[in-house]
Amino acid sequence: MPEKYTILSEIIHERKSVRKFDSSYTISREEIEEMLIEATEAPSSSNLQPWRFMVIQDEETRKRLKEFSYNQQQLDTASAIIAVIGDTEMYHNIDEIYQANFEAGYMDKANMENQISNAKALYPKAPVEARLNIAAFDAGLISMQLMLIAKAKGYDTVTMGGFDKQQFVKEFDLEDRYAPLVLIGVGKAAAPAYGSSRLPLEKIVTFI
């Protein structure tokens, strides 16, 4: 088995959801930025990258967040809470993204212009619900990638979907285009994560 796969497999199996972190441990802003930059290598629909992040470390902000997040203890103890936010108007970045792809040599001018034309014909006209679904799907991809990167660096994580999203929008004064999707706590575990079983393959896979 290739060494790279072995390492990846170990990271996947070691990553567990931790709910009690070492509150005395601090992850630097620089290291969080490094993890986020690496996480953005995740794929996204038409490469429009409809993810945005809010990194919450301030104690008072955590307290306010905890009030409408079912008082989950990891909000107190994680080194940082990363809110993953979907941009339902990702089409505003079409020109910037494809121009950057062209300038980096990833595509020629004709392909760039064709991709821009196709994206502009599709995304702005799509219903908001459809764009939210796209953003949520892509946010799931980058969230999982971020958690594996964190584990590879020796950190632990937990995802939290249990929070009042409307209150989050109000608290942080988000524009209508932005939808909070999930919170990710990251830090050093202070207690082991619970193990969890998985359904057998024959129950979830069909070969045709």
Automatic annotation (TrEMBL):
Keyword check for Mitochondrion: no
Alphabetized Pfam families for the sequence: Nitroreductase (PF00881)
Xref: InterPro entries: Nitroreductase, Nitroreductase-like
Keyword annotations from UniProtKB, A to Z: Oxidoreductase
Domain of life: Bacteria
Nitroreductase domain ranges (all copies): 12-188
Signal sequence coordinates: none
Coiled coil start-end: none
The UniProt record lists the keyword Transcription regulation: no
Sequence similarity: Belongs to the nitroreductase family.
Protein known as: Nitroreductase family protein
Natural source organism: Sporosarcina oncorhynchi
